[in-house]
Write a structure and sequence with these properties.
Blueprint: H1 14-81, H2 88-107, H3 112-140, H4 144-152, H5 155-243, H6 247-262, E1 266-273, E2 280-288, E3 297-298, H7 304-311, E4 315-319, E5 325-326, E6 344-352, E7 355-364, H8 372-466, H9 472-503, E8 509-512, H10 513-527, E9 534-537, E10 542-545, H11 547-564, E11 572-578, E12 583-588, H12 620-630, E13 635-640, E14 644-649
Parallel strand pairs: 9-11
Antiparallel strand pairs: 1-2, 1-7, 2-3, 4-5, 4-6, 6-7, 8-10, 11-12, 12-14, 13-14
């Protein structure tokens, strides 16, 4: 006997395995949904039970309060009339209330707080009922005095308030619990309905998905083949975008590749211009049977090009048999862009840096619309062209900026040469001026002092040798001559100091301004031992400047303050910093000045007080202003006659 060969069993395909697994998952999901539905139903039943339970508790609480109120009303009616029938409700409540409280305690046994409240309420109610029984017995005994006392002492009302408070709190707690349980019940009811609906929906979806999977397997290879062709087209366009650098080469290659990839009959590339008078468009390149009229033209507001530019999205247009473009007549293209023989049009805006710089317009003459793949290819090409145009514009702008920078650099070089020449001339002039100032200072210091010394010397000799021969007026005149000589010497010294300050080198360093002020104040106080000068100097003030010149400020300012407070019984001089004014200040309570003449204070030889009242050269404040100016600061003054003056100054 020959052996019989059996063929090996066929292995199921992957898709069959997928369907088997999908069926198993569906069965598990249906079983799970059934269990969820049963569980949700159980939860719903339990929630509704507790809702009923809570409503029963609330009803019993209200019934207890009603019985207590009726018992009290019954006793009051008996107290007023003495008629026994009025006690019927009281006697009924006396019999039913204990049982009602037992029932309430049983109903709230799941809530320990409520159990305690019910026990306390039951005790208070018993006291209330005992008190009502006491009132009934007094009325029966006809004890009028006791009856008035019972009705008026308010004890029964106090019991009732306590009972009402406890019962109301318990009722409020139960109502809160009722709201929660009603919410839980509604949620459970929703979950039950949702579970049933979900199970049904999943079953339907399982059937639909099974049918879809069969259809998907049939179309999978066709879609894969289409995707391969689409990727080849995309790669073709991308290669052009990466290999071509100049705008003409890029646009020529891209338009040619695009016409082949998208199977269009006409392609036009247009530049977009934003003008105040309205948007304008200019065709710059074309491919296929597009007949393009050169030159700019105004874009029709509301037209297809205008809509694509303002929305930033591609526009699809279809030409109807009567040669109108859909949708609406306003969507027709501007004349000269594409011929009227085209049936389908696609307009893609070119964007660069969030602005429209051009349009790419494609057209087909046969009855076929543009697919999403065609639109994607045109979008990609538009992005490449926009990038190249933007890069070219950036290069042109960079080149123009470079030329402008080179021209400005040459102009700056020429200007610097002229300025350097002017600086050299100015420096020479300043050096000549300084030499003249030095010569003037030497002349003042030596040539002017020599005659003054002669006048002063002969005046002393005249006073010593011929003093007894001179009359009283003669000695007075001689004294005035010597005083004038001394004042002239002081003026010369002040002018020399002002000149030295103007020409002196400025050596900047960190200076203790408060320390300088303390030092100058001590010197002035020692020079005027009979004056009770009271200095108030803020400590810790520091500034960057020339310590020698800064000392001149305080010598002149403190000296003036001491001079102009000579007629004040308690002179005060203050120095400090004002954050509000952002400036230093020196204040005194002396003679002050008229504010309208404040501008003359810092001019040399300008004095606001007479020589007889206050002596001085008229150079001190001018010197102070010169020192502050050399420190790039400012100074101003405020004053009131006979009420003192304040000087504000800054140091740069």
């Amino acid at each position: 006997m020959g052996s019989r060969c059996t063929p090996p069993p066929m292995r199921p395909s992957r898709f069959q395995q997928f369907l088997s697994g999908l069926f198993l998952v569906a069965v598990l999901l249906i079983a799970a949904n059934a269990w969820l539905a049963f569980h949700a139903e159980a939860i719903l039943e339990n929630s509704e039970h507790w809702v009923t339970h809570t409503l029963e508790v609330i009803t019993d609480l209200e019934r207890v309060l009603q019985n207590i109120a009726e018992a009290e009303s019954s006793v009051r009616g008996f107290m007023l009339t003495g008629r026994e029938p009025y006690l019927a409700r009281y006697l009924a409540a006396q019999q039913s209330l204990p049982a009602q409280f037992e029932l309430l305690e049983h109903l709230v046994s799941d809530n320990h707080a409520q159990v305690s409240s019910m026990r306390l309420a039951a005790a208070l109610v018993q006291q209330k009922m005992d008190y009502l029984g006491y009132a009934v017995s007094i009325r029966r005994d006809q004890n009028k005095g006791a009856i008035g006392h019972v009705l008026g002492n308010g004890k029964g009302e106090a019991y009732m308030r306590e009972v009402d408070k406890i019962m109301r709190e318990a009722e409020q707690s139960e109502r809160t619990l009722l709201v929660q349980r009603l919410s839980d019940s509604a949620e459970a009811r929703f979950e039950a309905k949702f579970t049933v609906a979900l199970a049904s929906t999943l079953d339907i979806l399982f059937v639909i998905f099974s049918l879809y999977s069969l259809e998907y397997e049939r179309n999978l290879r066709q879609r894969a083949a289409e995707g391969t062709r689409r990727l080849e087209k995309l790669q073709s366009v991308t290669d052009v975008g990466f290999t071509q650098l100049t705008v003409p080469e890029l646009t020529t290659q891209l338009l040619g590749r695009l016409r082949e990839a998208t199977d269009v009959e006409a392609l036009v590339l247009c530049r977009w211009f934003h003008e105040d008078a309205g948007d304008q468009i200019e065709p710059t390149a074309s491919e296929g049977n597009a007949v393009v009229m050169p030159g700019r033209r105004r874009v029709v507001p509301g037209g297809a090009l205008w809509q694509a530019a303002h929305t930033g999205e591609p526009m699809h247009l279809e030409r109807s048999p009567n040669a109108a473009l859909e949708p609406g007549t306003n969507n027709q293209l501007d004349p000269g862009i594409l011929p009227d023989t085209l049936h389908s049009l696609l307009i893609v805006p070119l964007r660069a840096s969030s602005r429209i710089i051009g349009m790419l317009v494609a057209g087909r003459s046969r009855d076929s619309t543009f697919s999403p793949a065609d639109e994607e290819l045109l979008r990609l090409a538009a992005d490449r062209i926009a990038l190249a145009l933007d890069r070219a514009a950036a290069y042109d702008a960079e080149r123009a900026a470079r030329h402008l920078a080179e021209r400005h650099a040459q102009e700056n070089a020429d200007l610097n040469a002229v300025l350097e020449e002017r600086v050299l001339l100015r420096t020479a002039e300043l050096e000549n001026t300084n030499r003249e100032l030095e010569a003037f200072s030497y002349s003042v210091s030596h040539d002017l002092r020599a005659p003054l010394r002669s006048i002063d010397g002969f005046s002393v000799a005249l006073e010593e040798d011929y003093g007894p021969l001179l009359q009283g007026d003669g000695l007075h005149y001689l004294g005035r001559v010597r005083a004038g000589v001394q004042r002239m010497g002081q003026l010369i010294d002040a002018l020399l100091q002002l000149s030295r300050i103007t020409r002196a080198d400025l050596s900047r360093e960190q200076v203790d301004l408060s320390g300088i002020a303390f030092s100058v104040a001590q010197d002035i106080a020692l020079s005027l031992p009979n004056r009770p000068l009271d200095f108030h100097i803020e400590p810790g003030l520091e500034v960057e400047g020339d310590a020698r010149l800064l000392r001149v400020i305080f010598e002149n300012m403190f000296g003036n303050a001491a001079k102009f407070t000579a007629n004040v019984a308690q002179p005060e001089i203050h120095f400090g910093w004002s954050p509000e004014e952002a400036a230093y200040y020196i204040r005194d309570n002396g003679a002050g000045f008229d504010q309208q003449y404040a501008g003359k204070l810092f001019v040399a030889f300008q004095r606001l007080h007479g020589e007889k009242d206050f002596q001085g050269s008229g150079i001190g404040l001018a010197t102070v202003a010169r020192v502050i100016a050399r420190h790039h600061g400012t100074i101003r003054a405020q004053g009131v006659v006979s009420q003192g003056a304040t000087f504000w100054f800054t140091l740069g």
